[in-house]
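User: Reviewer 2 asked us to show a designed sequence for the structure in our supplementary figure. I'm pasting the C-alpha cells here. Could you produce the per-position amino acids so we can include them in the response letter?
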C-alpha cells in the first residue's frame, strides 16, 4: 500500500510579499537602465568632456556623501518611516567634530580619529532621540524628524553663531576629502563604497535587515512573530543618525567647511534618490543598491545639463517629475501585486476595456 504526500499550499500572505520583492528588483534594474541611457545621451552630446576620468571622478565624489546618507535612509523608509533631519544632523555633527578637533589640537590622524568619534556620537544621539519619539512616544516620523531638522540646525547655529567653521585638519582634507586611494580613484568614494557594501550585507544577510523588512511589511505580524518592533525602530533611526554623523565628518573634509547654510535640500535629495532607486515610500521593500543608482541620476543630470548648456535648475524639475512617476507606478504595482494581477495604468485599462467591449459586440 502506497501513500501519497501533497506539498503544503503556499502561504497566501507570502505570495504578495514575494511579488513585491520581484517588483522592487525589477524597478532597480529599470533605474539602472535609465542611468545608463542618461550617461549615453550626454556622452553622445559632449563626447570630449562628459565621459572623461576627471568628470566621472567629480560625479562620484559628489555622490559619495549622499550615498552614505542614503544607506541609513533606505533602512528608515523600508520600515515605513521617514527622516527629514539627516541634513541638519550632518551639519551639527560636523560642527561638534570641528570644535572637538580644534580643542584637541594637531593636524594629524589622531585629531581626525577624535573628530570621528565626536561626529559619530553626535549623529547617534540625534538618531536615538528620533527613534525613541517614533517608537515609544508614537509621534509620527514626519513630525519627529521635522522637529529634529529644526533643532539640530538651530543648535549648530548657536554653537557657531551662524558662521561656518573651517578648521578641518590637513589629514582629513588632503587624505579623505581630496585624496586618492590609487590613481584617480578618490578616497571619499572608496569610504562611501565600504559603507554601501556594509549596508547591503546588513540589509540582505542579517537578522537586522530581516526585521527591518518585516516591520515595513506588517509591523503587527512582525510583533506576533517575536520581533521587538519598538526596540528595532529605535535601532534603525539610531543607525541612520550614526551614518549622518559620519557623513558630517566626510562633508567637513570635502568642503573644508561645516556648510551650515548648504544642506537645506539634502534630505529631499536623499529621499528622492531612495524612492527613485526602488525603495517604496509605503515601506516593506527596497534595496541599498537601488538607492545608490537612484542617487547617481540627479548628479549625472546636473552635470550633463551644465555641459550641454542647459540651466542646471532643470535637474530639479526632471527629478521631481521622475519621483512622482516612480511613486505613482509603485502604488499601482503594490496594489496589483496584492491582487495577484498585472499592473495597468488607469487610462490603458479604460482603453483595454473599451477595446474588449467592442470585440464582444462584434462577436
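Assistant: Here is a per-position design you can include in the supplement:
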Amino acid at each position: 500500500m502506497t501513500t501519497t504526500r501533497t506539498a503544503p499550499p503556499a502561504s497566501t500572505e507570502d505570495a504578495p510579499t514575494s511579488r513585491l520583492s520581484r517588483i522592487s528588483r525589477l524597478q532597480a534594474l529599470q533605474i539602472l537602465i535609465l542611468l545608463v541611457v542618461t550617461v549615453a545621451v550626454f556622452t553622445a552630446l559632449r563626447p570630449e568632456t562628459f565621459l572623461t576620468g576627471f568628470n566621472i571622478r567629480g560625479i562620484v565624489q559628489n555622490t559619495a556623501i549622499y550615498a552614505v546618507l542614503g544607506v541609513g535612509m533606505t533602512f528608515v523608509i523600508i520600515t515605513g518611516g521617514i527622516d527629514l533631519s539627516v541634513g541638519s544632523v550632518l551639519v551639527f555633527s560636523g560642527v561638534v567634530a570641528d570644535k572637538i578637533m580644534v580643542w584637541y589640537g594637531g593636524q594629524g590622524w589622531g585629531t581626525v580619529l577624535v573628530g570621528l568619534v565626536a561626529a559619530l556620537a553626535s549623529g547617534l544621539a540625534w538618531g536615538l532621540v528620533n527613534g525613541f519619539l517614533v517608537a515609544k512616544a508614537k509621534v509620527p516620523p514626519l513630525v519627529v524628524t521635522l522637529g529634529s531638522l529644526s533643532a539640530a540646525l538651530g543648535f549648530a547655529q548657536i554653537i557657531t553663531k551662524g558662521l561656518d567653521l573651517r578648521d578641518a585638519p590637513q589629514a582629513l582634507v588632503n587624505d579623505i576629502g581630496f585624496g586618492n586611494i590609487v590613481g584617480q580613484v578618490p578616497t571619499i568614494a572608496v569610504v562611501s563604497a565600504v559603507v554601501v557594501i556594509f549596508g547591503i550585507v546588513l540589509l540582505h544577510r542579517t537578522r537586522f535587515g530581516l526585521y527591518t523588512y518585516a516591520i515595513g511589511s506588517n509591523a503587527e505580524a512582525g510583533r506576533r512573530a517575536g520581533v521587538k518592533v519598538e526596540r528595532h525602530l529605535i535601532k534603525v533611526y539610531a543607525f541612520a543618525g550614526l551614518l549622518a554623523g559620519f557623513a558630517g565628518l566626510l562633508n567637513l573634509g570635502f568642503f573644508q567647511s561645516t556648510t551650515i547654510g548648504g544642506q537645506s535640500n539634502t534630505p529631499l535629495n536623499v529621499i528622492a534618490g531612495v524612492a527613485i532607486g526602488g525603495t517604496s515610500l509605503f515601506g516593506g521593500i527596497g534595496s541599498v543598491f537601488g538607492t545608490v543608482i537612484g542617487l547617481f541620476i540627479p548628479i549625472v543630470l546636473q552635470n550633463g545639463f551644465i555641459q550641454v548648456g542647459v540651466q542646471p535648475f532643470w535637474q530639479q524639475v526632471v527629478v521631481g517629475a521622475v519621483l512622482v512617476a516612480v511613486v505613482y507606478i509603485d502604488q499601482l504595482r503594490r496594489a496589483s501585486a496584492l491582487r495577484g494581477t498585472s499592473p495597468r495604468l488607469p487610462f490603458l485599462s479604460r482603453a483595454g476595456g473599451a477595446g474588449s467591449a467592442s470585440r464582444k459586440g462584434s462577436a
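For the response letter, you might also mention the following. Residues 1-16, 345-363 have pLDDT under 50 and may be disordered. Residues 93 and 119 are 5 Å apart (CA to CA).
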